[in-house]
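Input (DiGeorge syndrome critical region gene 6-like):
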Amino acid sequence: MRWWGHWGSHVAGSLTRRGSAGLKQELFHRHKEAQQCCRPHNLPLLRAAQQREMEAVEQRIREEQRMMDEKIVLELDQKVIDQQSTLEKAGVSGFYITTNPQELTLQMNLLELIRKLQQKESEYENAFS
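Output:
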């Protein structure tokens, strides 16, 4: 059997029924149809599909960024709670676990005051060393 296998008998039968000119014409029309599918008249459809795909990707990116932002905020909230708990256990006045914005502002101001006092103490010790 030749390389074209059972297709060879089909082609041979077609050749005898329609002749090679008919097969060439049929092949030409199939190729023409295939080429028509690639022509610019499909360009608007392709652009629309690409636009939809791009919008879907952008939506997924926004959603992933939102989820990451939420995760970061939750981690920061936990860090604040851990810090409040540590300072409360250490006996630092004004520190306890809270989510009240006014109390958080007061605690941040207390931390800033402690930092500045510590800095002044360090400068004082260096001056007399």
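The mean pLDDT is 84.
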